[in-house]
Amino acid sequence: MLTIYSDEHRYQNAQYELIDGKLLPPFENPRRADMVLAQVQAVKLGAVLPAQTFALDPILRVHRSDYVTFLQTAWSAWVAAHGEYDALPLNWPTRTMRHDRIPEAIDGQLSYYSFDAGTPITAGTWRASFAAAQVALTAQAQIAQGAPSAFALCRPPGHHAAKDFYGGYCF
After folding, report:
1. What DSSP designation does 17 have?
2. What is the distance between the alpha carbons of residues 106 and 81, in angstroms, rounded to a whole number?
């Protein structure tokens, strides 16, 4: 089986997540992908290939453009407003609050686009998330070109994210 992998995952390296009312070191961290890759290599699962670059077009077929723009710019907006530490949302709109427009301030945007406080935005979130998407797209391309199987070692993962929000460590 082919494994597609990128070291770019290391750029999503949060210092904290909010779990059970406590700021703790994050469960989802670069060591998780290292452990998986080491096992893939130890059992000689197959070739490990780097990701190709597919640019933004396929990402924008899955995710709303305002959400992608948010991920691209959130860190710089956060740093300008608060400084260089992990960005976590402060609150979330409830059913009776108006939430049909995108907030202007980064604090409101974090709440608008996320569903938890366990998925920090960091200096490398966009870079790592973009790379993870390229890993998945490369695995798909390998299958489309006739490979019988491919494992996309994506980090940060993406299975909890949606077209316009992130959470559960996923962007």
Report:
1. E
2. 8
How far is 163 from 171, CA to CA, in rounded Å?
Answer: 10
Beta bridge partners of 34: none
Pure H helices in the chain? 30-42, 57-60, 65-82, 106-113, 125-144
* pLDDT tens-digit readout, 133-157: 999 999 999 999 999 999 999 999 9
Q: Is 1 helix (H, G, I), strand (E, B) or coil?
A: coil
Note if the pTM is more than 0.90.
yes
Task: Work out the percent of the chain whose per-residue pLDDT is above 90.
Answer: 90
Place of tokens 């998925």: 119
Strand, helix or coil at 168?
coil
Q: Which residues are catalytic?
A: 160
pLDDT attached to residue 90: 87
Q: Under 8 Å CB-to-CB from 56, ≥6 apart: which residues?
A: 68
| Structural domains for the chain | 2-152 (3.40.800.20)
